[in-house]
């Protein structure tokens, strides 16, 4: 069954990666860069401060914990354990994969970009309930960054899905821990 899922994943990747345009290549490449999103992060920080100025440091701490967890689990544990080659590193796809930019590390399961962005979106959605409409934009950001990884030829769809699951779990975990610590054992902050 695992082999069948892997085949479907590879076929789905090749299909999704085949949709590209020369003008879109540099755009998708920029979407994966942290510097591109600094205005979004600054806007989020401003909205969080305006919404709940007394707890800004708790929110920032939760975001840091979420990204630390998701990034270390994906890059430090899962990629070395599973050793699944990135599509751009797999010689079977040479000449078939549209690759733009650098390939990155050797292994790709699971995507750290997907884990970090979905973790951020999950933690902030749980923590900042009064800002839900803005949080929908954060999930759109997570989807866009994650899709760009397939477009650029560096991740399979299951790498993205697995990363998103890890990120969501890290976001829930961080929300729970920050709430417990902040409230000294009571129900996590809403």
Question: Could you characterize the architecture of this molecule?
Answer:
The mean pLDDT is 92. The radius of gyration is 18 Å and the shape is globular. The longest helix has 27 residues. The chain is mostly helical. The chain has one domain. It starts with a helix and ends in a 7-residue tail after the last helix. The chain is built from seven helices and no strands. 67% of the residues lie in helices and 0% in strands.
Q: Give the number of domains.
A: 1
Mean pLDDT across every amino acid position:
92
H-E string: HHHHHHH
Structural class: mainly alpha
**CA-based gyration radius:** 18 Å
Amino- and carboxy-terminal Cα gap: 41 Å
The helix count comes to: 7
State the major sheet: none
Helix content: 55-70%
Spans of 5+ residues with little confidence (pLDDT < 50)?
A: none
The portion of residues forming beta strands comes to: under 5%
Number of E-type strands? 0
Rough outline: globular
Helix and strand topology:
Blueprint: H1 2-17, H2 25-31, H3 38-51, H4 56-82, H5 112-127, H6 132-151, H7 157-183
Short description, anyone?
This protein has 190 residues and is mainly alpha-helical.
Which features characterize this protein?
single chain, 190 residues, mainly alpha, 7 helices, 0% strand, globular
């Amino acid at each position: 069954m695992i082999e069948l899922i892997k085949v479907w994943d590879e076929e789905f990747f090749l299909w999704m990666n085949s949709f590209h345009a020369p003008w879109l290549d540099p755009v998708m490449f920029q979407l994966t860069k942290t510097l591109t999103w600094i205005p979004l992060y600054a806007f989020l920080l401003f909205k969080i401060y305006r919404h709940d100025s007394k707890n800004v440091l708790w929110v920032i701490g939760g975001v840091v914990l979420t990204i630390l967890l998701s990034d270390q689990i994906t890059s430090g544990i899962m990629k070395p354990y599973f050793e699944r080659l990135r599509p751009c590193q797999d010689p079977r796809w040479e000449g078939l994969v549209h690759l733009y930019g650098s390939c990155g590390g050797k292994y790709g399961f699971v995507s750290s970009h997907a884990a970090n962005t979905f973790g951020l979106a999950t933690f902030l959605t749980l923590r900042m309930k009064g800002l839900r409409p803005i949080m929908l934009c954060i999930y759109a950001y997570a989807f866009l960054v994650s899709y760009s990884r397939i477009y650029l030829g560096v991740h399979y769809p299951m790498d993205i899905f697995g990363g998103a699951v890890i990120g969501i779990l890290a976001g829930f975990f961080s929300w729970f821990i920050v709430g417990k610590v902040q409230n000294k054992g009571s129900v996590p902050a809403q």
